[in-house]
């Protein structure tokens, strides 16, 4: 009798374990940076992506707010509307940093809570101003290895305090 019960329990357990997993939505992300090639935003086939990241805003070394060159601003300001023409459900993110990011400016910002607040507040305002739904931190060089840990543990709580509860603005860390 006990063996029959164990067999039934085993079969129930086995059938539970072999159920197919619920399908997960895949993220198909791509980067756009105009650089020198002047590839038009309108030529991007945004239907191929769930997320598109537009680069790059830089960190101002004195105000710790975002700065855009006139050329970058031209592309950033039209990016979200342009890619949403072909794919209205796409999520756009503004990349901050990149290869040309100043690691020492990032270190200064990370190490000072006031600078972090200026940065977080301005980053959210800038993203909203240009229609981006989130931020991508693309710092390729760090001056100190502890900077990333400091940034990860301090930025999330600081940013969440600035976003009203009814709004969402995803922040993605590289």
From TrEMBL:
Residues 1-23 form the signal peptide. Residues 27-174 form the GH18 domain. GO terms for molecular function: chitin binding; chitinase activity. GO terms for cellular component: extracellular region. Keywords: Signal. GO terms for biological process: carbohydrate metabolic process; chitin catabolic process. This is GH18 domain-containing protein.
């Amino acid at each position: 009798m006990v063996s029959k019960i164990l067999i039934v329990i085993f079969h129930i357990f086995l059938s539970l374990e072999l159920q197919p997993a619920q399908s997960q939505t895949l993220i198909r992300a791509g980067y756009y940076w105009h650089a020198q090639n002047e590839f038009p935003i309108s030529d991007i086939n945004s239907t191929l992506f769930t997320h598109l990241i537009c680069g790059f805003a830089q960190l101002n070394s004195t105000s710790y707010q975002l700065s855009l060159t006139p050329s970058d601003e031209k592309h950033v300001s039209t990016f979200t509307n342009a890619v949403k023409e072909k794919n209205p459900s796409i999520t756009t993110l503004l990349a901050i940093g990149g290869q040309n990011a100043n690691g020492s400016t990032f270190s200064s910002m990370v190490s000072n809570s006031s600078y972090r607040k200026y940065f977080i507040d301005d980053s959210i305002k800038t993203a909203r101003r240009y229609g981006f739904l989130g931020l991508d931190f693309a710092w390729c060089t760090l001056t100190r290895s502890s900077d990333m840990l400091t940034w990860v543990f301090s930025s999330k709580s600081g940013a969440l305090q600035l976003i009203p509860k009814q709004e969402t603005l995803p922040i993605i860390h590289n």
